[in-house]
Amino acid sequence: MKTMQTRVFVVHTSSPLASRIFLKAKEAEMMSEGYAWIVTTGMMDLFNSLDSNVIYSMQGVLGVKPLIPISSRLVSTSIRWRKKFADDNPGVTPPQDINLFGLWAYDTLWALAMAAEKTGFSEPGSLPNTTSLNYTDMFITGTSQTGPKLLAAMLDTKFEGVAGNFQLVNGQLQPSSFQILNVNGNALKEVGIWSPLLQSSSSQTDANMTGFSGEKLDRVIWPGESRNVPKGWEVAVSGKKLRVGVPAVAGFPEFITVERDPQTNSTKVSGLYIDLFDAVMAELPYAVRYEYVPFEKSDGSNAGSYDDLTYQVSIGNYDVALGDITITATRSKYVVFTLPVQDAVITRTQKILYDDNPNDEWFFLRPLKMELWLTTLALFIFTGVSLWILEHRCNKAFRGEKIVSNLARVVVVVWIFVVLVLTSTYTASISARLTIFKLQQGDTDVNTLIRNGDYVGCREGTFLAGFLKSVGFDESKIRIYKGAKELEVALSKGSEKGGITAMFSGSPYADVFLSKYCNKYRKVGSPYLTEGIAFGFRKGSPLVGDVSSAITILTDSHKIAEIRAHWIRSGCNEDDPSKVGSNTNIGLRSFNILFAVTGLVTWTCVVLFLVSFFYNNWDQVKQIYNEPSTIWSKVKQICELFDTEDTTYIRPDAVDEN
């Protein structure tokens, strides 16, 4: 009995056998908190005659027995009976009350006497039994002629006896009220009365309609001196452990990770849903033994989808299905789900597209439109030509170093103003683009993906493939991937290059995915509602209600949110475009072409200068090279020659000044 889940036992047997049962139950520690024992009338009515050890072992037991209403006739009869008992049994203390069987016997004799008076006979007559002639038994009697009359009169007899209302219905006493008694110490404490209810159409009682007299039972002392109402069942300590099925490979290691020790062959399971399940089971008011069993093949891969895992629970291979398992109609056929441990919706994740890609080689040109750049370039050339026209006749040494003409000065002033305006505009525009990169919103309707024939993807083992078909996607346009890395590669390629345009997943999966790739992808469109993620238990499991209550407690205390925050960090997965792009860093690639042009022009000028230098000074360089000296000495002499001032580039006006 101790290994059974039930903790409520009804004892309906003889008093000696019941006494032995309670003594053994006390030895087995089954009269402790959490148990409930109920005994019937036979045991309760003989309670005062029980041994003290039996009474001690019955502490907290509930019992029922017919209610005996207190009346003057009962009191008088009890007094006369105790006196008679004392006279017949000198030296023996008479019981305080007559037991129920004695009262019933007393009322039955009264009913028989009243029935005999109604029949009006003094001596009963009988017919001779012809079969008695063949027997030697002297006690075989004849058939009573007044028996049927006496029976009919007794069935019609009604009176208020010492045990209450006496009336036979179908040969049985009419149901009376019952006392609900609680064994407390050496006495019985009444905690309630169970009474037949009056029928609505008459004043007669109905044995099939019963209820409490009063609002509720008085406080009951249960076994183990507990005031907590027993639950009625419990997972037996000596019973088997719950087998909790977990996926061998989850969508992310943050969800569930299964690790094996090759030396000890032991399995270690960790992750978000493992911590959630541990916290929920620890919140239960009783201990439950359980173990995690991977749902896997011999090669360590998953043995099937979550639908398959829930089916395995239904056929008894597992007791619980655990993971990022979304509640669906199909899975509910196999298991009973608890309250959701985590809200979940189906989200769509797509690649972030910028109006201005910060990694574009031509990014530095984006602040100004092409026509403005062309106009600026044309104006620059026109200004230079204009300055030469205005200066070359009046400034023979003109090299752009000093402007003499007033007209040229006017042109330069205007050009400087234009350059200032362009520079300010360019600076403001590129600053804004570097601060916030504007995302391309595009058409986020799923119907657009369907019309365009775009490929979409989801994770293997989930129900999302069937969901996408129900939304309207053709099966050939749905691609299934094993893990997050494969999905990320497919999203980065896009449908045009053999990948996918959008990834459909549950919100917990999407949150972890975006926390890893927050600057490349984002959620788009409206989510699709689901029933959430929950634990799946075998149908009929008594744990479901308590586990759901524990989930509610942990949710209200924010414990579940704390566990989730420990495993899943917050990433830039918001739908706000400004938040998504604000963390993008600008690298060297954004200015590759600008730096390349600058470097090319500079290097070309340097090369031309060096060619010109060696060409004009070749005789001196050749003479230094042919000298019988060390290489270091030759390099030093060439550097000194290179540093010599070239008078051909000195301004004439500077010579005059000297």
Key structural traits:
658 residues; five-stranded mixed beta sheet; single chain; alpha/beta; six-stranded mixed beta sheet
- Uncertain runs with pLDDT below 50, 5 residues or more? 199-203, 573-588
Number of helices: 22
> Ends: how far apart?
123 Å
Which descriptor suits the 3D outline? rod-shaped
Please report which band the strand proportion falls in: under 5%, 5-15%, 15-25%, 25-35%, 35-45% or over 45%. Answer: 15-25%
Average pLDDT value?
A: 79
What is the radius of gyration?
Answer: 51 Å
Residues in helix, %: 25-40%
- Give the number of DSSP strands: 23
Biggest sheet strand line-up = 1-2-3-9-10-11
Return the structural class: alpha/beta
The major β-sheet equals: 6 strands, mixed
Would you kindly provide a written description of the structure presented here, covering whatever features stand out?
With 658 residues, the chain is of the alpha/beta class. It is built from 22 helices and 23 strands. The strands form six sheets. A six-stranded mixed beta sheet has the order 1-2-3-9-10-11. Strands 15-12-16-23-17 form a five-stranded mixed beta sheet, with helices on one face. A five-stranded mixed beta sheet has the order 20-19-21-18-22, sandwiched between helices. β19 (456-459), α13 and β20 (478-481) form a beta-alpha-beta unit. It is rod-shaped, with a radius of gyration of 51 Å. It starts with 7 loop residues before the first strand and ends with a helix. The relative contact order is 0.08. The model is unreliable at 199-203 and 573-588 (pLDDT under 50).
Reconstruct the topology from this structure.
Elements: E1 8-11, H1 15-27, E2 36-39, H2 41-45, H3 52-57, E3 62-66, H4 72-88, H5 100-119, E4 126-127, E5 143-144, H6 147-155, E6 158-161, E7 164-169, E8 172-173, E9 178-184, E10 187-198, E11 205-212, E12 242-247, E13 257-260, E14 267-270, H7 272-283, E15 290-295, H8 306-314, E16 320-321, H9 329-332, E17 335-337, E18 345-351, H10 370-391, H11 406-435, H12 446-452, E19 456-459, H13 464-471, E20 478-481, H14 484-493, E21 502-506, H15 507-516, E22 521-529, E23 536-538, H16 543-556, H17 559-567, H18 577-581, H19 592-616, H20 618-626, H21 631-642, H22 652-657
Parallel strand pairs: 1-2, 2-3, 12-15, 12-16, 19-20, 19-21
Antiparallel strand pairs: 3-9, 4-5, 6-7, 7-8, 9-10, 10-11, 13-14, 16-23, 17-23, 18-21, 18-22
Helix pairs in contact: 5-6, 7-16, 7-17, 10-11
